[in-house]
Amino acid sequence: MANHDICTKTMWALSVPLCILLILFVALTAYATYSFHIFVPLAPANNIDCEQMFNTTSETYLSYIENRTLLEPSQDDRNCFQIRRRRYLPADMPKSMAGNHNMFFIRVVSKDYDFVEEVLTMMHSPIHFFCFALDITADALFKERMFRLGDCQVNVLVPRQLFNTSTAHGMLSAHRKCLKEIDEFEWRHAVITAEHDIPLHSTKFLSRRSRRLRDMVEINGVHFKEETLLSADPNDTSSQLYQVSRNWIQHLCSVATISHSQHKVLYDYLMKTPDFDLPNDSHRETSVVEKNCDTKVYDVDGSCLYAMEDFPAIRNTTRLFIRADPHYDFGFVQCVHEVVFERTFFDPISNKNANNYLYGSHKNLIDDYRN
Q1: Which residues are 230's β-sheet partners?
Q2: Considering its fold, how many domains does the chain have in total?
Q3: CA-CA distance, 308 to 331, in Å (whole number)?
Q4: How many whole angstroms separate alpha carbon 233 and alpha carbon 239?
Q5: Across 256-353, where does the E strand assignment appear?
Q6: Do residues 95 and 70 make contact, with C-beta atoms less than 8 angstroms apart?
């Protein structure tokens, strides 16, 4: 009996530290797995073989053109875990990261939550900030899901105020609200995009590109120095700044890169220029700004909506963003997501070459129809 008691006590004495070690190992493994996606998220998953879409004569490609994939709304999320499980977005930001150049991405949204989430995932980085200002036309479910997304992600901001963006000043007020939200943080450049813009390059490339602007502002590919902004007269309708900024706003604010040091001066100027109505679902532009549009499908402002017909050419374009409609060809958006993911994590050479192409001649080489 004594030997039995000794064996039992010995087993307990050994099992306790072993259990503690096992629990620590499991906890460490779980934490490492959970934290890993802060730096390398999961690759986008869809049912389309995007490699086949580069061959425009293949049966797969032709069959897809006849039966495009359209946006199918996901179920409403009830907690943050469901969002992160679907998109694998990080819950926290790293405390520090060497050489970071914090960016701030801003856009006004009103519908298509799953498209918003898809584009956010394409561009997401834990060291950058994202702000989505909501238009007053957004329905209750869209607002609820957007507010939850902002509450779940520490670097995603969704102001509770709603904006009437049917006018130029309303759109600018929405941007300004986002800019004021984190003005005390050390972001360097803000990138303003329209609701249905999707990126063609990695956020790393966009960040590296913005650093070259320093304290300048770029609107539709045109650079404006600090002295130009400081001396700008909002009543001078013949100035280049007035003409370019009006054209930019008219086309739903796609695309501008604004330095942190100049955003207040720029928006003070813009808010003093004459207000005007913007295109929307009830007021579409009759003029087409991109006549060489393969899809022959246009946005409310006359901008070309890109689709799978354009997919083979996107790897060679110098455009930073293009417009897409998830209700016309959501599969194209998903395939672009794959390309951006590859450029972000597996193909740094393409980003380097694109950077050299854009800046090697010290000229603006972006093929932007809004110039």
Answers
A1: none
A2: 1
A3: 8
A4: 8
A5: 256-259, 321-323
A6: no
Residue 216 domain-assigned (yes or no): yes
According to DSSP, the β-strands at 156-157 and 129-135 are parallel
Side-chain half-sphere CA neighbours of 90 within 13 A? 21
Omega cis (within 30) before 255: yes
- For residues 369 and 289, the answer to whether their CB atoms sit within 8 Å is yes
Exposure letters 229-245 (e unless 16+ CB within 10 A, then b): beebebeeeeeebbebb
Asked whether residue 231 is domain-assigned, the answer is yes
Strand partners, 191: 105, 257
For the chain, 371 residues long, the average pLDDT of each consecutive 10-residue run is 57 69 72 52 77 92 95 82 68 49 92 94 86 97 94 90 97 96 83 96 88 92 94 96 96 93 96 95 81 88 94 86 96 93 68 40 32 30
Asked if the structure places residue 35 within a domain, the reply is no
- Cβ atoms 351, 315 nearer than 8 A: no
Burial 299-329 (b: 16+ CB within 10 A, else e): bbbbbbbbbbbbbeebeeeebbbbbbbbebb
Neighbours of 224 (CB within 10 A): 20
Q: Is 134 helix (H, G, I), strand (E, B) or coil?
A: strand
Domain that includes residue 325, residue range: 57-359
171: nearest Cα among 133, 199, 140: 133
pTM beyond 0.70, yes or no: yes
